[in-house]
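To: structure desk
From: M.T.
Subject: fold request, one chain
Message: Could you run this one when you get a chance? Sequence is below, nothing fancy, just the single chain.
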Amino acid sequence: MSRRWKKMEVPGLEKVLIYETVGSTNDEAKLLAREGYPEGTLVIAEEQTKGRGRKGRDWFSVPGKSLTFSLLLRPPRSTSLALLCALSCAWALEEKGFHVLLRWPNDILLGDKKVGGILVESSFSGDELLCVVVGVGINVNETREDFPPSLRESATSLFLASSCMWQRGEILRSFLSFFFPVYFAWKERGGDFSPWIEDYEKRSSLLGKEVVVRWGEKTVRGVARGVKEDGSLVLANFEGETLVSWGEATLHEGER
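Reply: Done. Structure tokens follow.
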């Protein structure tokens, strides 16, 4: 095992595969699932040539500076898993002294800038859920010049926020140490996020603010009131209460 990843002995972690270059860690994890690799398999890549975020967008990363990995999991369902993963990222970064905000459903923020993101993808064999892969990307040691001009105002890194260089392996180990205990508790509850709602909501960047959520051609607007046990976002508007299960949430223009 590469020295930078040597401290990955974490309960719940079954196998670790490390790649210098891979198309996508999520795609690789899904292939491994079909080959019978166990839950708790971790795929780490120094470089992704086809890394992606939600809606198939390219995921920006810098070899040697970004932390990009995927976990192969076998839960009964995937609802609220992105929130559980984001919360685990928050705990890990808070342990290092950062003040973290979470933007439903999958963004990790330092202030108003994005430092990381989550991509949850399910893989099926017919109608049967074969696995769920959780991909995580965290900007660790990037400088401002590392980011393309289009991202420099909206993205940040742990280095930019602290003026310190960070060991990526230590950030990963911390995340895994927080994630696995709550994941197995969540799994035991059948995917019920209820015990962690309060922890999530107090870190929400949207709570109490007017929000616009877009998915496909549809848009819904309202004041974010919280999240439900299935991970859906609660919006209050003229229609009463609207539950949004997925989409991309941004602050309404007047809240920025």
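Reply (cont.): The helical segments are 25-34, 81-95, 158-162, 168-188, 197-201. Let me know if you need anything else for the meeting.
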